Amino acid sequence: MLSGTRVLVADDDPELLDAITDALTRLGADVARSRNGAELIENLADQGPFDLVITDIAMPWMTGVQAIHAARSAGLGTSVIVMTALREEGIAARVKALGKNAALLHKPFALTELESLVARLLAQRDDERMSSGGSDVSARRVAS
Asked: Is the residue at 1 inside a domain?
């Protein structure tokens, strides 16, 4: 299902990071890992481009939403799934502000929920590439 897909997963919970990494790897994805917001930014810069980023909100140094917002400000339009166990009112709006290729996933969740969101965002990305003539400006920008 995810053969050749590059995914960056960021979470400060090592057990959840392992579970998500293992699940995506079993589906054929090439997965990079980050344990905090600083590593998330570093991996985006050093190992990108990625097809998808999956990040927790509450992490040391910088939240996942702050890290993705910084990446968006730098022109990186990678699809993102933001995970959280927090139930604050403003979270959904902050994720929505990241763009139509961002989705919110509340913890706890079943891995099938994650897989469904991954499939939806990657299909949406592929549809957008097809309608724009196959170009991926963000990938070229990061690679150069």
From this structure: no
DSSP 3-17: TT-EEEEE-S-HHHH
From the CB of residue 34, how many other CB atoms can be counted at a distance below 10 Å?
Answer: 25
Look at residues 97, 65, 23, 87 and name the one whose alpha carbon lies nearest to residue 33.
Answer: 23
Domain-embedded: residue 103: yes
Per-residue pLDDT of the chain (144 residues; tens, 9 = 90+): 789 899 999 999 999 999 999 999 999 999 999 999 889 889 988 998 899 999 998 876 767 777 777 776 666 778 899 999 988 888 898 889 888 889 999 999 999 999 999 999 999 877 666 665 554 444 433 333
Whether 88 is in a domain gets the answer: yes
